[in-house]
Design a protein that fits this description.
40% of the residues are buried. It is built from 27 helices and twelve strands. Among the domains are: 167 residues, no CATH class; 202 residues, Rossmann fold, CATH 3.40.50. A hairpin with a 7-residue loop joins strand 11 and strand 12. It is an alpha/beta fold and 662 residues long.
């Protein structure tokens, strides 16, 4: 029941006014997207049984799309975006030819994935370019996603789970009914994509190549799982099933002229090469449980194709350093192979055991994030032809630092300096060497480290970023989020925050959307900082400093001159009786923040969430405080209670942190 509210709490503040200019011209505002999605829903979805649910879906989906465009993850790279949409134009089926909102956008994510939105936006991860080798395969992926859109699969899945009672949340549930339903939808999208592919100028086998990429990624994933032989309960069918279905129908495929490339092979190869740094940056900075490993493995593959490129050397080094900084046990682990398993038979039973060989013992394409068709491009065969240059991460790190010195990689010097966490004399020696280079990126950070204790040079102040201030009407089981980006709503939210600000001379309280508007690069780094410390596997398991994990985090603390950065999420909820009509839902959406907060004799609560990231204030760099379902006085309007209550929660958090420091 609380899933929607909690998701809103964790999302960065959504402001329609902050969408970049090109997007704003096309999408107008949240209400435009919401109405577009609802208008284009199939007729049956607007029947009396489903009408409100379909409008609810449209609202949730529109919020999700606006969030994506304001997350900092959408890359504005005109050359690649235009190229991808030229391919889209080549393959778009006649059924969708008049849909003006269909467009491909590039997402700053290094993994292989794409996601079609219910209003026609295809978010394509930049990481897709690491795996795909031609336009035909890209066309197959695009058509598969277009088929989902044409068939309204996301809406169907939503309605299915609402009706059968699965707790849907915003965009997902782990329960089996959805998994089965999703697998059927994937196969249906495959079938339609196959029909459409025949109508394009591309080789139909591009679709098969797409499935083979998925199969290879599945197999690599299984090599890291000790107790699994196949990926079960996934919302997508096994790739071997999809390949078998394709091959069973291959004799029915009719296609005359076909090509691997139609738009431009030269542009494809050039953009694919230019995308490599973006892919590695996404893998390094968009942290999840395996992304340091993914970054190391992807950077190493790029390196063996272009061993002279210092950028790939840097990403190998820095991903190793950050991984080992969080847990120094990794220094002694085998490079890359430490997380993989071999399969053997014991008493005629299949078993897995940790891989007992290092990466350079022999060349195994299954262990490399490498498309087999690109194997011919490898230039660094000497790693396997000669005596092993390294086996562990420690040895690999030292080797790549020596290599970086021959490549004049300035940032590699800083990485190497930061790897000395206890030997300060050696660290400072390399910091001084780093500062000699005119290309040094983090000079202020290096100079501050050389001057002494990093945190002692910062003011004992806090920067508090209000990432969420959601006004929500809970109508029965439906959470209806008001458009807080509307001018009147923003003005009243800021009025509440102004009342809070005056109590804290040592704390600068700012709306996150203001940072996004004025300092976009800072906004992206703050977002990455918040994401990192929300991950459960980093919860207080090591006394590490944010500035040593990522120098760009250090730049934030230095620029704003604070020892503590806080992210606050606030949900202001009013509870109303359940309604059954779309009209009631739309009426609730029209409620202003002022109207909601200025009422009495209604049931209202507050959710408060604060994550603090500090430099050497506590034994761990992270402190989380939350208080949910805070009841407000029934007889008083919420407006007069919000500021005092928010101040009380901040004071409680400060008190709890103070107790831990004494």
């Amino acid at each position: 029941m609380r899933i929607i509210v909690l998701l809103f709490l964790l999302l960065p503040f959504i402001s329609n006014s902050q969408v970049n200019t090109a997007v704003a011209q096309q999408y107008k505002d949240l209400s435009y997207l919401r109405e577009y999605i609802y208008t284009h829903a199939p007729t049956y979805a607007k029947s009396k049984k489903y009408d409100r649910l379909t409008y609810k879906f449209s609202d949730i989906a529109a919020n999700r799309i606006v969030y994506e465009f304001n997350s900092g993850d959408i890359i504005k790279w005109d050359a690649l975006e235009n190229y991808l949409n030229k391919i889209l134009k080549q393959v778009i089926p006649s059924e969708l030819a008049n849909d003006t909102l269909i467009h491909i956008y590039i997402k700053h994510d290094g993994n292989f994935d794409a996601e079609m939105q219910p209003s026609g936006q295809l978010f394509l991860n930049v990481g897709v370019l690491a795996e795909i080798t031609d336009e035909a395969t890209l066309a197959g992926l695009i058509l598969h996603e277009l088929a989902h859109y044409y068939k309204h699969h996301t809406l169907h899945k939503f309605l299915h789970n609402e009706v059968v009672g699965t707790d849907w949340g915003v965009f997902g549930s782990v329960k089996k009914p959805r998994d089965y339903f999703s697998q059927q939808q994937e196969l249906e999208a495959d079938s339609l994509a196959s029909v459409w592919m025949e109508q394009t100028p591309y080789f139909h086998s591009g679709l098969l190549n797409y499935y083979r990429i998925l199969q290879r990624l599945e197999q690599r994933k299984l090599l890291t799982l000790e107790d699994y032989w196949e990926l079960k309960n996934s919302h997508i069918p096994p790739s071997k099933t999809r390949i078998a279905k394709y091959e069973a129908n291959s004799n029915k495929i009719k296609q005359n002229d076909a090509n691997l490339f139609v738009v431009s092979k030269t542009d494809f190869m050039g953009l694919k090469k230019q995308a490599k740094p973006l892919i590695l940056d996404a893998l390094l900075t968009n942290i999840n449980k395996t992304n340091y490993d993914d970054c190391i493995e992807r950077a190493f593959v790029f390196h063996i194709v272009e061993p002279e490129n210092p950028l790939f050397t840097y990403y190998i080094m820095e991903a190793i350093r950050r991984k080992a900084y969080l847990d120094d046990i990794y220094w002694q682990q085998d490079f890359i192979t430490y997380r993989y398993f071999d399969t053997l038979r014991v008493d005629n039973v299949r078993r897995k055991r940790p891989m007992g060989r290092h990466l350079l013992e022999f060349f195994d394409v299954n262990l490399l994030a490498l498309n087999p068709t690109e194997g011919k491009d490898i230039k660094a065969h000497f790693y396997w032809n000669d005596a092993p240059r390294f086996t562990t991460y420690d040895e690999a790190y030292a080797y790549f630092f020596r290599l970086s010195q021959t490549q004049n990689c300035t940032e590699c010097i800083l990485s190497y300096a930061l790897s000395y966490t206890t030997d300060i004399e050696k660290r400072d020696g390399y910091l001084n060497e780093y500062l000699l280079s005119p290309e040094a990126k983090y000079t202020l950070f290096a100079e501050t480290l050389l001057a002494g204790n990093f945190s002692k040079n910062l003011l004992n102040k806090k920067l508090t970023l209000v990432t969420d201030f959601n006004a929500v009407i809970k109508e029965g089981n439906d959470f209806i989020r008001l458009d807080n980006a509307a001018a009147d709503n923003l003005r009243n939210i800021n009025y509440v925050l102004d009342s809070v600000r005056m109590n804290y001379p040592y704390r600068t309280i700012r709306m996150f959307s203001d940072i996004q508007a004025m300092y976009y690069l800072d906004f992206k780094k703050f977002t990455q900082l918040k994401k990192l410390f929300l991950l459960p596997h980093y919860v207080g398991n090591k006394n590490f400093s944010p500035h040593l994990l990522d120098p760009s985090f250090a730049e934030l603390f230095l620029k704003y001159n604070v020892k503590e950065i806080e992210f606050i999420g606030i949900n202001f909820l009013e509870y109303r009786k359940a309604e059954k009509t779309k009209e009631a839902y739309k009426y609730a959406l029209k409620t202003s923040f002022y109207e909601l907060a200025n009422t009495t004799n209604t049931s209202q609560t507050l959710d408060f969430y604060l994550i603090s990231i500090n430099e050497n204030i506590l034994k761990t760099p992270k402190f989380i405080y939350s208080n949910r379902d805070i009841s407000l006085n029934f007889k008083r309007n919420g407006f007069t209670q919000l500021a005092p209550r928010i101040k009380l929660e901040i004071d409680r958090k400060d008190g709890m942190m103070y107790q831990q420091t004494n």
